[in-house]
Amino acid sequence: MQDTSKQYNAVIDTCKSLFIKKMTDYGSAWRILRLPSLTDQIFIKAQRIRGLQQNEVQKVDEGQESEFIGIINYCVMALIQIEKGVVEQPDLSTEEAVELYEKHIAITKKLMEDKNHDYGEAWRDMRVSSLTDLILQKLLRVKQIEDNAGKTLVSEGIDANYQDMINYAVFALIHLGELKQ
């Protein structure tokens, strides 16, 4: 589990670094996005990953890694939107956004550690393509919950699904990093 924690932190450091750079370039313009818009952005990235995994020809010179990073960052943005609500104008400084980013990643990592303990790191035996499919499944669940005005009868809420997607994307990036070694 110790390696997992270090690997998780390394992946998140890469994602957070890009998040900070984009905050510097664009500010918190993403704060105007409603949850379904963020869900759709994540869906586009997951669909592209699946296409990259299935297609023999790739026409855009960006691989799976950048898309998984995008999934992680958009999921964190969605968690922040759930907490703070949607606004009409950007309202967060980079420092405030990074503080919220770190808060939601800490909660999500704790969830990963708890599940990893119970499941015995089963994700290490999974294929990246399976992790992609699980992210797509979670996205379809989130879309259904959004279509039901956020109401569920027995299922976990939207936030838990975003957290799971973050963790699946981190696992995929760990796997992809190990393939390069």
Number of helices: 6
Mean pLDDT: 94
Order of helices and strands: HHHHHH
Biggest sheet: strands, sense, closure? Answer: none
Distance between the termini: 20 Å
Roughly how many Å is the radius of gyration? Answer: 16 Å
Determine the fraction of residues in helical runs and give it as a percent range: over 70%
Q: Overall 3D geometry?
A: globular
Beta-strand share of residues: under 5%
Would you count the extended β strands for me?
0
**What are the segments in which pLDDT stays under 50 over at least 5 consecutive residues?**
none
Structural class: mainly alpha
Features:
6 helices, 75% helix, 0% strand
Describe the structure concisely.
Helices cover about 75% and strands about 0% of the residues. By secondary structure, it is mostly helical.
Characterize the structure shown.
The protein has 181 residues and is mainly α. Helix content is 75%, strand content 0%. Helix 1 packs across helix 6, helix 3 packs across helix 4 and helix 4 packs across helix 6. The chain is globular, with a radius of gyration of 16 Å.
List the helices and strands and how they pair.
Blueprint (H helix, E strand, L loop, with lengths): L1 H25 L8 H20 L9 H21 L9 H26 L8 H20 L10 H23 L1
Helix pairs in contact: 1-3, 1-4, 1-6, 2-3, 2-5, 3-4, 3-6, 4-6, 5-6
